[in-house]
Amino acid sequence: MIAEPDARAARIAADFPLLAQPTSRGKRLAYLDSAATSQKPQAVIDSLVHYYTHDNANIHRGVYELAERATDAFEGARAKVARFVNAAEPAEIVWTRNTTEAINLVSFSWGLANLEPGDVILTTQLEHHSNLVPWQLLAAKTGAELRYIEVDAEGLHVLDDLDEKLRGVKLVAMSHVSNTLGTIAPLAEIIPRAHAVGAVVLIDGAQSTPHFAVDVRALDVDFFVASGHKMCGPTGIGFLYGKRALLDAMPPFLTGGDMIREVGYERTTFNELPWKFEAGTSNIADAIALGAAVEYLEHIGMDWVAAHERALTVYALERLQPFVARGLDIYGPKDVTKRSGVISFNFADIHAHDLASILDLDGVCVRAGHHCTMPLMDKMGWPATARASFYLYNTERDVDQLIVALDKAADVFKVA
Ligand SMILES: Cc1ncc(COP(=O)(O)O)c(C=O)c1O
What is the edge-to-edge ordering of all strands in the sheet holding 367-369? Predict the structure, then answer.
């Protein structure tokens, strides 16, 4: 039992106003879809309201007090994110709309400048489409080969043939944590071996950054990307971390205002880092609010967040166990130390979408579908899965609500 962490999570839930809202059927909300997007604490909502009420002005250009205040808040948020992932300096953090845009930035900028026919991009079989489609297109444009680290039936990376897989590799691009199976990638083993063959490493941290402490320097990643909306921040803001030497050498991605130093009719020179990659007016308010989200998470403590989610995952897996005899299939690593707070499942012959709709009647929000990992679903032979995912505000009560709703679904669909 996890009485104390659960009590703290219940107190944390009170910081998230949306969670107190009953459903239209009057049910308590059990929000179990944080892998898709997280809810927002009052501190983040307040940050947005404060910015538009008191500080709104365009940044970097104005010399008046208001514009300076907006600029300071915007750059201050960058420094907070840099500290949160332990970047060496704020200039190594580039604001993007989300993980997807950050990966595309690297693909278009670093990828087109550095890859040629015969080079290899190595990824894995469990990537989100965001960390797959850009590399497919880059391979097609440059003549590079796209190669995959395989995963086994539990969704664990198969590393027996890693040396062979790494032959000729210029870029390794893989997720830290799988959004479909929760698998935590063995990066400590893969990254040094990738560097040993001279490869650059990009890690998709969309599902790790919100849930446990990330240290980009300890990991020794070259690029690291994440989305604000999955880590208590607003939508429309994410970031790319890159080692300065790499970012400095890269050509701009999008071009226009703010990313320039001097523009003439014949030629243009570009701004220094990180602004070289931030063309046009930035998403100022959301960047500042992401700074507030990061402060909120730091105040709670990422080690506590990780421990709480692990305990809740263990509790959920225990409570789901009796359903296995009735046809519940639970996917992902059996060893809980190798998985995050994401549980994908199918129940008897109920389609995942029907199951999610029935659970919704009881206020339980789970995702159903391919989770933007269609090749993985094909490989595993699942048309879809239902997915419950936990965050710092979930409690045993949410899991209990899921269990009761699953029992009802068994009745509705006449599961033995
Ligand atoms: C592992 C992973 N990578 C990338 C993404 C894409 O994130 P975004 O849609 O915020 O760009 C997601 C979103 O679910 C994800 O889970």
Answer: 328-330, 342-347, 385-389, 367-369
Q: What is the CATH number of the domain that holds 399?
A: 3.90.1150.10
The Cα 209–Cα 225 span in angstroms is 9
Residues with CB under 6 A from ligand 1: 98-100, 128, 130-131, 175, 179, 204, 206-207, 227
Per the domain annotation, does 124 fall within a domain?
yes
Which of 104, 128, 132, 389 has the most ligand 1 atoms within 8 A of CB, as the residue to mutate? 128
- pTM reported for the whole predicted model: 0.97
What is the position in ligand 1's atom list of the atom closest to the CA of 177? 1
Number of domains composing the chain: 2
pLDDT tens profile 231-258: 999 999 999 999 999 999 999 999 999 9
Closest Cα partner for 344 from 22, 36, 70, 18? 36
Is 232 annotated in the active site?
A: no
Domain that holds residue 61: 45-299
- Pair 12, 120 in one domain: no
Quick: pLDDT tens for 293-307: 999 999 999 999 999
**290 shares a domain with 234:** yes
